[in-house]
Amino acid sequence: MSSGITFDPSAIRELAKILRETDLTEIELVEGDSRIRVARLMPAPAAVTYAAPAPMPAPASAPEPTLSAEFDPKHPGAVTSPMVGVAYLSPEPGSPPFVQVGAHVTAGQTLLLIEAMKTFNQIKAPKSGTITRILIEPGTPVEYGEPLMLIE
Question: Does pLDDT of 100 surpass 70?
Protein backbone atom coordinates (compact mmCIF):
# COMPACT_ATOMS: atom_id res chain seq x y z
CA MET A 1 0.00 0.00 0.00
CA SER A 2 2.87 2.39 0.66
CA SER A 3 4.74 3.56 -2.38
CA GLY A 4 6.96 6.46 -3.23
CA ILE A 5 9.68 7.98 -1.08
CA THR A 6 10.94 6.06 1.94
CA PHE A 7 11.31 8.35 4.95
CA ASP A 8 14.86 7.51 5.96
CA PRO A 9 16.21 9.68 8.84
CA SER A 10 19.76 9.56 7.47
CA ALA A 11 18.52 10.79 4.07
CA ILE A 12 16.70 13.67 5.77
CA ARG A 13 19.91 14.56 7.65
CA GLU A 14 21.77 14.56 4.32
CA LEU A 15 19.16 16.93 2.84
CA ALA A 16 19.59 19.21 5.87
CA LYS A 17 23.36 19.11 5.32
CA ILE A 18 22.87 20.13 1.68
CA LEU A 19 20.69 23.05 2.84
CA ARG A 20 23.45 24.30 5.11
CA GLU A 21 26.26 23.82 2.61
CA THR A 22 24.43 25.57 -0.24
CA ASP A 23 22.71 28.31 1.80
CA LEU A 24 19.32 27.15 0.48
CA THR A 25 16.31 27.56 2.76
CA GLU A 26 14.35 24.51 1.63
CA ILE A 27 14.45 21.37 -0.50
CA GLU A 28 11.37 19.44 -1.58
CA LEU A 29 11.27 15.99 -3.17
CA VAL A 30 8.03 14.75 -4.74
CA GLU A 31 7.47 11.26 -6.07
CA GLY A 32 3.91 10.24 -6.87
CA ASP A 33 1.75 11.02 -3.83
CA SER A 34 4.78 11.12 -1.48
CA ARG A 35 6.57 14.29 -0.60
CA ILE A 36 9.51 15.26 1.65
CA ARG A 37 10.15 18.91 2.41
CA VAL A 38 13.18 19.96 4.48
CA ALA A 39 13.36 23.64 5.37
CA ARG A 40 15.43 25.75 7.70
CA LEU A 41 14.64 29.06 9.29
CA MET A 42 16.97 31.91 8.52
CA PRO A 43 17.17 34.23 11.52
CA ALA A 44 16.22 37.79 10.66
CA PRO A 45 19.14 40.06 11.61
CA ALA A 46 16.90 42.91 12.79
CA ALA A 47 14.50 40.67 14.72
CA VAL A 48 17.07 38.64 16.67
CA THR A 49 19.85 40.45 18.45
CA TYR A 50 22.05 39.17 21.23
CA ALA A 51 24.17 41.13 23.62
CA ALA A 52 27.76 39.96 23.43
CA PRO A 53 28.91 38.55 26.75
CA ALA A 54 31.76 40.36 28.47
CA PRO A 55 35.01 38.75 27.34
CA MET A 56 36.76 36.61 29.92
CA PRO A 57 40.29 37.78 30.63
CA ALA A 58 42.76 35.28 29.20
CA PRO A 59 46.39 34.78 30.13
CA ALA A 60 48.70 36.66 27.78
CA SER A 61 50.41 33.44 26.65
CA ALA A 62 47.22 31.51 25.82
CA PRO A 63 45.34 32.49 22.65
CA GLU A 64 41.53 32.54 22.68
CA PRO A 65 40.31 28.98 22.00
CA THR A 66 38.70 28.46 18.61
CA LEU A 67 37.40 25.47 16.70
CA SER A 68 40.26 24.17 14.61
CA ALA A 69 41.35 21.11 12.71
CA GLU A 70 43.07 19.97 15.93
CA PHE A 71 39.77 19.69 17.84
CA ASP A 72 38.69 16.07 18.31
CA PRO A 73 34.86 15.85 18.17
CA LYS A 74 35.08 12.52 20.03
CA HIS A 75 36.76 14.23 23.01
CA PRO A 76 35.21 12.82 26.22
CA GLY A 77 34.18 16.32 27.32
CA ALA A 78 32.51 17.28 24.02
CA VAL A 79 28.83 18.17 24.26
CA THR A 80 27.34 17.25 20.89
CA SER A 81 24.06 18.18 19.27
CA PRO A 82 21.39 15.51 19.65
CA MET A 83 19.44 16.93 16.69
CA VAL A 84 19.46 19.19 13.65
CA GLY A 85 18.30 22.72 14.44
CA VAL A 86 19.37 26.25 15.34
CA ALA A 87 21.39 26.74 18.53
CA TYR A 88 20.87 29.61 20.96
CA LEU A 89 23.13 30.33 23.94
CA SER A 90 20.55 32.33 25.96
CA PRO A 91 16.89 31.79 26.80
CA GLU A 92 15.78 34.86 24.81
CA PRO A 93 17.33 37.73 22.85
CA GLY A 94 19.05 40.26 25.09
CA SER A 95 19.28 37.99 28.12
CA PRO A 96 22.57 36.64 29.46
CA PRO A 97 23.81 33.30 28.10
CA PHE A 98 23.16 30.09 30.03
CA VAL A 99 26.95 29.56 30.40
CA GLN A 100 30.21 31.21 29.44
CA VAL A 101 33.76 29.93 29.03
CA GLY A 102 35.19 29.39 32.50
CA ALA A 103 31.80 28.72 34.13
CA HIS A 104 31.45 25.66 36.39
CA VAL A 105 28.43 23.52 35.45
CA THR A 106 26.74 20.57 37.11
CA ALA A 107 25.34 17.49 35.37
CA GLY A 108 21.83 18.25 34.10
CA GLN A 109 22.30 22.04 34.00
CA THR A 110 20.94 23.74 30.85
CA LEU A 111 23.78 24.83 28.54
CA LEU A 112 21.87 26.07 25.48
CA LEU A 113 18.71 25.67 23.43
CA ILE A 114 18.27 24.07 20.03
CA GLU A 115 15.22 25.10 18.05
CA ALA A 116 13.89 22.28 15.90
CA MET A 117 10.47 22.35 14.24
CA LYS A 118 9.51 25.52 16.15
CA THR A 119 10.22 23.80 19.49
CA PHE A 120 13.01 24.91 21.81
CA ASN A 121 14.86 21.93 23.26
CA GLN A 122 17.09 22.32 26.33
CA ILE A 123 20.55 20.82 25.95
CA LYS A 124 21.82 19.84 29.37
CA ALA A 125 25.33 19.17 30.66
CA PRO A 126 26.10 15.45 30.52
CA LYS A 127 28.59 15.81 33.38
CA SER A 128 29.90 18.34 35.90
CA GLY A 129 32.96 20.40 35.06
CA THR A 130 34.16 23.70 33.63
CA ILE A 131 33.20 25.06 30.19
CA THR A 132 36.52 25.41 28.36
CA ARG A 133 35.26 26.05 24.83
CA ILE A 134 32.04 27.19 23.19
CA LEU A 135 32.23 26.10 19.58
CA ILE A 136 29.14 27.82 18.14
CA GLU A 137 27.70 31.31 17.81
CA PRO A 138 24.10 32.23 18.76
CA GLY A 139 21.70 31.48 15.90
CA THR A 140 24.03 28.94 14.30
CA PRO A 141 22.45 26.03 12.44
CA VAL A 142 23.79 22.77 13.90
CA GLU A 143 23.83 19.18 12.69
CA TYR A 144 23.26 15.95 14.58
CA GLY A 145 26.47 14.97 16.39
CA GLU A 146 28.15 18.37 15.86
CA PRO A 147 30.29 19.44 18.85
CA LEU A 148 28.78 22.45 20.63
CA MET A 149 30.84 22.91 23.82
CA LEU A 150 33.68 21.32 25.72
CA ILE A 151 33.43 20.50 29.44
CA GLU A 152 36.67 19.62 31.25
Answer: yes
